[in-house]
Fold Formate/nitrite transporter family protein.
Amino acid sequence: MQDGSGVSKPDALSPAETLAKAEALGVGKAGMDAGRCFVSAMLAGAFIAFGATYFAVFLGDPAMPFAAQRMVGGICFCLGLELVLCCGAELFTGNNLMVVSLLSRKIGFGGLLRNWAIVWTGNLAGSLLVVALVFAADVGAMNGGAVGDAMVSVAAGKVAPDWLTLFAKAVMCNVAVCLAVWIGYSARTVADKVLGILLPISFFVAAGFEHCVANMFFLPMGLIMKAAGHGAAVAGADVIDAGSIICNLSAATLGNIAGGLLVGAAFWFVHRKKAGSR
């Protein structure tokens, strides 16, 4: 690609251009009509749930070696963020990057919190809708019920750690997610976005980090599958209940916010325009 002077330029936006784009997107998100924002957030919650379902179906093969299972399962999960970035939807974890607009004083703290509250709630609604549809579609019965067992196993693994461990996992998760979203912001084509997010997203999934929106699907799905008779032999399945789900989501949400703020604030500090610069 060349500019008007004939000098070659990279296809991706520069870091400073990406920051400017992120700031502009943050302004638009803060000013979005509440109804549109909620429905867009429902779409994002559903998209992430699609990726989570794909991941669970893949885990339904218990003979798969651990490393291959984590790597390919992580790639399957990438479907969710690909749909969010390419189709356009409001995802709570990605919207934590709105902090760059706040630091640049282009939005207020109230606008930031308003967006996060609407989007978190909308993501939950979209996720629960997909939980109901996946259950009605009897996806858990696939592979002789092994997919349902895998859903219970995933949920059990997510409620087992203590709150601080979950928080740390969530910080790491959203560092990876926000880096993937940042790559998506810098991309000029759909192919760039899809390829750019594969490694960061599959990394956080493979490492077992905690994503609050994904857990809005995984945890209720595991609870319902357990009630339907799946996962009887899964260790720790008995502790999947409303209390453990709330514990996980509280740690995951706050940790995701912390991770997103770390990424956004760091990029804003490094790439912001200095006073008097052009």
Q: What stands out?
A: The chain has one domain: 15-271.
